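Retry 2 of 3 after timeout on previous attempt. Resubmitting structure tokens to design endpoint.
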């Protein structure tokens, strides 16, 4: 369960003593099923929380339980003190709040060992720019918090551009990339931030989707995407000198660990298999590696790559400085 929901539920139960799952779901803007799942997780973790059925029932904690966030162990404080501020918090404008909270914990419980901070450093940032513009991310966050619809302009199907009014249902960050889950014309879909050109928050209230749970939807969508991505199998060879670029382009199907790139005993060409959602995806992603990859199978992919390469050569064939021969 999410840490912010855990704290919100604890605070609510400390203040109100007893509350129904429906009230918590409305307060936290999740479905009742998510609340019951969180209650089970909290109980399993040792928090004395229980439910009462029937009229006047609800969710409560035993009166003697003190959820004192100040009385943390030295090891817990040291673990928190070694955290780096994720880049995603910077973009959402939450970095200073998290940094301040960690500092307050350190003051209350004693300073975290300087040796620990110097010996371990967590770098959560990626090598590549995610393409999520600060203004776009902030506008979508504002729309979610204010419960308003958005006008969006985005790319789809190569470089074609579309404009639409959508309900923003949630924002997700995965492997340093941002994604938006939105509802358009009654259909819920996922869009990579790199495809979004512009966003404007509208005055029109967003339409709430009953029983929608962002975590459940995202996990199901990821599972479906992985299954679809693996439908088209390609066998190929990769040149040793292009292994670093290959792993950057196909990070989800890495061929080697980074420390092995410069191993002198590696052969000049390495054979591997990749999985794509379609032949079209395989073609446009492999063309970016040029002569550093050789497709072994399927043969139809070989032919379509050759055809695209010939088309490119034809465009430049009238220029004396650029000549291609096959």
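Retry 2 succeeded. Sequence:
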């Amino acid at each position: 369960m999410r840490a912010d929901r855990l704290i919100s539920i604890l605070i609510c139960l400390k203040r109100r003593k007893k509350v129904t799952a429906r009230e918590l779901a409305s307060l936290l803007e999740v479905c009742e099923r998510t609340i019951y799942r969180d209650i089970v997780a909290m109980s399993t973790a040792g928090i004395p929380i229980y439910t009462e059925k029937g009229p006047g029932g609800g969710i409560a904690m035993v009166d003697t339980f003190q959820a004192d966030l100040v009385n943390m162990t030295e090891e817990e404080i040291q673990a928190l003190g070694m955290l780096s501020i994720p880049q995603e918090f910077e973009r959402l404008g939450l970095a200073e709040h998290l940094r301040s909270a960690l500092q307050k914990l350190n003051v209350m419980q004693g300073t975290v060992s300087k040796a620990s901070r110097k010996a371990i450093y967590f770098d959560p940032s990626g090598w590549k720019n995610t393409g999520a513009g600060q203004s776009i991310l902030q506008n979508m966050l504002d729309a979610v918090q204010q419960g308003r619809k958005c006008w969006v302009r985005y790319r789809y199907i190569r470089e074609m551009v579309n404009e639409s009014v959508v309900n923003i249902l949630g924002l997700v960050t995965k492997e340093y990339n941002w994604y938006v889950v939105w509802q358009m014309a009654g259909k819920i879909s996922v869009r990579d931030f790199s495809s979004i050109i512009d966003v404007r928050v509208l005055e029109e209230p967003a339409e709430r989707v009953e029983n929608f749970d962002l975590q459940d939807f995202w996990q199901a969508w990821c599972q479906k995407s992985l299954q679809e991505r693996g439908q088209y199998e390609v066998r190929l060879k990769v040149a040793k000198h292009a292994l670093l670029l290959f792993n950057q382009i196909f990070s989800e199907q890495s061929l080697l660990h980074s420390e092995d790139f410069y191993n002198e005993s590696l052969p000049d060409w390495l054979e591997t298999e990749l999985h794509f959602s379609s032949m079209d995806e395989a073609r446009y992603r492999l063309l970016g590696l040029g002569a550093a990859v050789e497709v072994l199978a399927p043969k139809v992919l070989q032919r379509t790559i050759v055809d695209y390469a010939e088309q490119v050569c034809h465009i430049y064939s009238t220029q004396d400085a650029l000549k291609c021969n096959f």
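Attempt log closed. The mean pLDDT is 77.
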